[in-house]
Each structure stands twice: as C-alpha cells, then as structure tokens.
Amino acid sequence: MDCGWMQRMFLYLLIPGVSTLITVHQPPFVITVLGNDVIMPCHISSDDTLSPPVLYWEYPDRTKLWPPSEKFKQRVDRVDENKQSLNKSIILKNVQWVDSGNYLCKLSVLTAETKTPYRTKGNETRLIIYDTVIFDVVTHNRSLLSCQVNVSADPGFVLSILYNGHKIRSGKPECWERGCNLAPQLHVLLSVTISLTHGGKYECQLHFNKTLLTKMVSDYIMHEQDVEIFPEPWLYYGGFLTTHFVTLSVITAALLTCRRGVHQPDQEYPGI
Fewest CB within a 10 Å sphere: which of 66, 118, 252, 272? Predict the structure, then answer.
C-alpha cells in the first residue's frame, strides 16, 4: 500500500483551509403546478467568509438562472436579498413546460483559511411539473369516466382511479414501463378510463413516486340516462324477416309445381 498517499489524504482532511469549508445543500427534486411560482431551495452550511459568496444558478444547458440571463429575465428573484444570508434559494415565476430539468446552485467563496477564492456547488435539483387534473365522464359516452393530466417527462408519475377507497385502475405511459428515454419531450399525457357500472365515490389521484400530489373526488349517482340504450333495429328485423318469407315462398311454389308434375295422369296416344 502507498503510505505516502494515505498521509497526504490525512493532512488534507485535518489542516484548516485545505478541505472545503462551505457545503451547498439542494434537494433532489422540486414539484410544482404549471403556471405557478416555485422556490428552488439552496442553503449553505457556514458564513465564515471574508466577503459575501457570489451566487450562481445554472440550467442544464448552462444558461444562467442567477444572475438572470435573457431567457429568465423578470422571472427570477432571490428569496433572501441579504447577501450574507445562508439561504441562497431563488424563486422561479410562472413555471412553463420548457423549465423542467435539472438546476445547479454554485458559489464562489473566499474564506480566511483559503485566502484565495474557490468554487463549490450542490447536487442538482430536478424541477418536475404537472398540469391541472381533468376528471369527468366522457362527453360522447356518459357510461365512461376518464381522468387525465399532462406531466413533465419524468417516470415517477402514476395516475389512479379509486372506487369507494379501493384502487381499480392506474396507469402511466407504456413507454415508461420499457424504460425508454422521454427527454426530447416537454410533457406527456397520463390518462385512465373506466366503465361506470355503479354509483358511489370515485376518486382520481396523481402520485409522484409515493407522494400524493393532487386528487379529485366525485360522488356519482347512476341515472337512467347515463346508461347508454341503443334503439331496436326494427328496419333490420323487417328486412331479415322479409328475406326469409320470400325465400320460403319461392321454395314452396317450386315444391308445389314439382308435385303437380309428378301426379299428372299419363296422356293416351291413339293407336297404342
């Protein structure tokens, strides 16, 4: 074993100023509704700096979220304007589908121990978005109940319908079951439909992993008009019977003709 390497690592961890003094904390994901304002959390573990840390927020394509680039101008603010605050979170306003993705909080720091500025960063936070859930009977067929919602292309979403508290159907895009890559898409449609056979309490729930994001409840009462009744096809019945009547008439006439031919007496010819 290289003892010299072990010694260097030991000194790196013990000598003040050699290891990173400030830690940046970010949550793994943040979930919000389309069109809402959302806080992107970022906190630091220490304020032992000679000057206020310089804050940077970056979008996946390295577009600056803070200080705001042209793309995010007028849409981003600091949660705490005090530069000495440990809270480096920002507010992203009017979230759109194009905003979904990973965000990174970075700091340029100068401490008494390090003497020279250095950069530190947190782990990326993924912004996950969903739209308003629509839960209603199908317009063209009132015997069907449908629940649907648009969500960002993240495989943790699950949409479910419950009847009197029991889950009867759930769904996610089939592509997610195969582990496919939905990255090029900004959002996808989740949809679940069931047949309405009984009255009772129906509920639509949207989960991300095991977290319940939103739900809609409908106490449904079955009405006679909700059961789709198809009119009797009398014209079809009439045509069917007429065809058989004509066929039977033709067969009967043919049989009678044959019988008359069989029972006709032999003609007598003179001279025989």
Answer: 272
